[in-house]
Amino acid sequence: MNISRTHPLKQYLLISSFALLTACGNGGGGDDGGGGSGGVTSSSAVAVSSSSAMSSSSSSSVASLVANPGPSLTFDMGDTVTLNPHAIVANPNDFSVGSGNLEVKGTSTNPMDIVAISWTLISGPEPTLITTGTTTANATFVAPSTDGAGSVDIIYKLTLTRQDGQTAEANVTYTIQKVNQAPAANAGSTNTVKGLSTVTLNALGTDSDGTIASYAWTQIGTDNLVALSTPNSSTTSFIAPSTNSNLDLTFQIEVTDSDGAKATSQVLIHVIPQDAPQVTLHFPPATGVYKGSTISAFGTTTVSGATISSVSVDTGAGPIAATVNPDGSWRVDNLPVPGTTTFTLNVTAMDSLNRTGTTTSTLSKSATSNGSGQTWSNATGLAIDSKTNTAYVLATGSSLSEARLFPIDLSNGNRGNDISNFSYAAQGIRSSGFQRLTFDEANHRMYVSIFPATTLLHRQIISVDTNTGMRNLISDPTRGTGNAFISP
């Protein structure tokens, strides 16, 4: 054989020229049985593989940075929205959040590491971002109100910054849909009326994210039906049915808002016989704040075609009988006051025909004194000066020195000095046993009726000047003529 596998010249030619690979493909083999073409092909593959690997390495490029804020989504008001950058900051050491924006920074010597991630609010209502730490750019916020609009868009820009200076940005849109808030309805307070009287119902409808579109009054139940004057208005009226016994009527208001949501409220109307006793509560007034474990109450009652047989007062512990005078005035002392912040005082009068009349007052209770100034034992009379926002209290006690008239500033509860002390002879008539107090606002005078406990003293009507405290006799058995007082 002329060609040998180990001939140096042939090796050189095979390595340096790809053409010889095919040219020698059919060359004859040596007697050694080695097959010259097989050996040449195996060596060439190794060399080519090495050359290809080097070529691939020299032509590769740095991978591009891509920001991925996730897909744009739609949420309802009140839903939780999540900001996820799908990336992390290398060695985070700086964090800031506020005004709807968030940024986390870090450091690295690797050019491929992300060293800053930020969320920037582009448009839409500013949410409050909630984070769980200062090392990630993950955050959440509650989808805000649309302020009446059908929907609003919140657009955020996600920015990534790599150590080598390359940045990437992408926006994401969160659409917030309006969730209609149901309206609120208020049919008014429970009321007591007489038969055949005109009763007015006033409803209030409110809607936090729209307007009230309609009102609808209906009567609940099928007994004692009445005709409502304007059932599709916020205000309506009816004539209470004639009755010889107490009746309860229930009415419902339904309000509908501009988005079709509805709300209802009911009100109870107590109807008493048209000739039932009329009860008036003079004290305590509902505007006051009371303390202590007991309270007094007094007032008047009138009736037509009958006489008052009893008056009872209940603060929640059961009715207590009041003392009723022939003229219809009544009083009860030492009523128990429940240990609650508010309590209801109910007064019920019954006449000789077993007809009842009632009145109710809801009072507030304070654990501490309201206002400053003097205190008193018992309040016999109370008068209000609406022009000066002042209440005048006629107080009594176990001694004459506790019989006095003093003012209360209704704006702050402060109690002033005595206007008139009935034990001071310099201010006029000295007396006690007060029955009633009437205020002449135009002339700044109080008129007090006196019914002394002892028959040695006269029953009197006196006046008190609210400016000077001076007391003057108006009428008694020694002054003036006419019928004698029974219970002035």
Structure commentary:
A six-stranded mixed sheet has the order 1-8-7-5-4-3, with no helix packed on it. A five-stranded mixed sheet has the order 18-25-24-20-21, with no helix packed on it. By secondary structure, the chain is mainly β. The chain is built from three helices and 33 strands. 8% of the residues lie in helices and 43% in strands. It has five domains: 45 residues, no CATH class; 105 residues, Immunoglobulin-like (Sandwich); 88 residues, Immunoglobulins (Immunoglobulin-like, Sandwich); 88 residues, Immunoglobulin-like, CATH 2.60.40; 98 residues, Neuraminidase. The termini are far apart. Strand 32 and strand 33 form a beta hairpin.
Give a short overview.
With 488 residues, the chain is mainly beta.
Topology:
Layout: H1 8-16, H2 19-23, H3 36-59, E1 73-76, E2 80-83, E3 92-98, E4 101-106, E5 114-123, E6 139-142, E7 151-162, E8 167-177, E9 184-186, E10 191-194, E11 198-202, E12 204-206, E13 212-220, E14 235-239, E15 247-257, E16 262-272, E17 278-283, E18 289-290, E19 294-302, E20 308-314, E21 320-321, E22 323-324, E23 329-336, E24 342-351, E25 356-365, E26 378-385, E27 390-396, E28 404-409, E29 420-421, E30 434-440, E31 445-450, E32 460-465, E33 471-475
Parallel strand pairs: 1-8, 10-16, 18-25
Antiparallel strand pairs: 2-6, 3-4, 4-5, 5-7, 7-8, 9-12, 11-14, 13-15, 15-16, 17-19, 19-23, 20-21, 20-24, 22-23, 24-25, 26-27, 27-28, 28-29, 30-31, 31-32, 32-33
